[in-house]
Amino acid sequence: MNLIPAPRGIERTGGTGPWTGEVRARTDPSLPPEGYRLAIGPDGADITGGTEAGVSWARQTLRQLLGPDAFRRAPVEGTAPEVPFAVIEDAPRFAWRGLMLDVARHFLPKDDVLRYLDLMAVHKLNVLHLHLTDDQGWRIEIGRHPRLTEVGAWRRRTRLGWGEPARWDERPHGGFYTRDDLREIVAYAAARHITVVPEIDVPGHSQAAIAAYPDLGNTDVIDTSALEVGTAWGICPNVLAPTDRVLRFYEEVLEEVLEIFPGRFVHIGGDECPKDQWRRSPVAQARIAAEGLDGEDGLQSWFIRHFDRWLTARGRRLVGWDEILEGGLAEGAAVTSWRGYAAGIAAAKAGHDVVMCPRQHVYLDHRQAPGDDEPVPLGWVRTLADVYRFEPVPPALAGTPHAARVLGAQANMWTELTESRDRVDYQLFPRLCAFAETVWSDLPPPAERDAAGLLRRMDAAHYARLDALGVAYRPPDGPRPWQRRPGIRGRVKHGPPPQE
């Protein structure tokens, strides 16, 4: 039936017939929470979902069966579509089926975020991880600290690609979401049974915040008043100072975050935090001594543990990038394992929940093919078939009790090199379609997966659905002329990615 993601079970009950348009839906708690049973016959469709989420996923399956025109925003003239008479029983493999969208490096307007929620729903993805703050921009309005968006949401120029000599887009870039914008995004997501996980990065990736409020930085080491919102890419040396003032500032930020985002998880980053300023800072060294910490790694862990306790006291759970393992993992924290599988394996064996998102497999900002035509090529080559062979549960956990600690997986879309919705579309699709199947469907081991069958289903039906949705995906035979970015250098990694 060319469905994506592929369902667990399909029983053909007859031929096909014209669609009557009648849908009868109910819930049955004996089914898995997101599971459903969809029965299509001459008189319409009967949907039974474990919850309303299951009903919603069944409707997405029915929508696919109605043909590409079902994905247009308004009906087109023509005869009623033919639908197959069948019974489909389905439920997801993982509870966390996510997309991380970086809106800090390049701001995406609210309507673009809402559109990506629609595209996630089509593919039965249910977690949007919004990367809201970084060195190059702060994207969430905080009432008690208005300079975070007055200053931190804007940079004076933007580096184009990588390599030397540097090239620049001299236009200022920025933007932010008001609190009501974000409430709208959360409500829009909830109506599609998607949870939004906000990320407020500490203690690294914080230059935009320090540019807005210089006393957040290590003022005993550098003149933080001279800092501006980051304009280039890479790991920035300017990190938060380990002071009570900084802790309270971010508590006030998070108090407003919790008012906007009702979900259980709050992401606090914790990644790529250079320690040089702390090594040179008398204030940081005094904190290490006073707390009896194991050096600068212990100081990073002290930051994370503070917010782990703070969030736990308010009924929430901290999740962070796998660097939060350095210096000791915070009690109760979950890990997004990005540098490979190793950190996720260690965290799961230690009794912590894990979301797998290894850069070797599901970093969708990485290039999709070798050659010079790929726009601003980055990282390793990860084709549609490569992403289809991604397995969230690594062999070291498979078949053990620790496998239950893998909540699921997410694909990560970093936007240093994707300055517009069309550029993000190109990087995400069609690979996000393959990823969606790996986290929803019961697939065989990676070496046995039918990647050719996925490509046939894409060609037979799903590209036409993406066309109807207006997605500027990468065509299977390469980028269209207007999708190329000649003259802007990327940063590629050669050879197969290491298996960590």
From TrEMBL:
Gene3D superfamilies: Chitobiase/beta-hexosaminidase domain 2-like, Glycosidases. Residues 94-442 form the Glycoside hydrolase family 20 catalytic domain. InterPro entries: Beta_hexosaminidase_sua/sub, GH, Glyco_hydro_20_cat, Hex-like_dom2, HEX_bac_N. It comes from the Bacteria. Keywords: Glycosidase, Hydrolase. Residues 1-30, 474-500 are annotated as: Disordered. It catalyses: Hydrolysis of terminal non-reducing N-acetyl-D-hexosamine residues in N-acetyl-beta-D-hexosaminides. Residues 8-91 form the Beta-hexosaminidase bacterial type N-terminal domain. Its EC number is 3.2.1.52. Belongs to the glycosyl hydrolase 20 family. PANTHER family: BETA-HEXOSAMINIDASE, BETA-N-ACETYLHEXOSAMINIDASE. This is beta-N-acetylhexosaminidase.
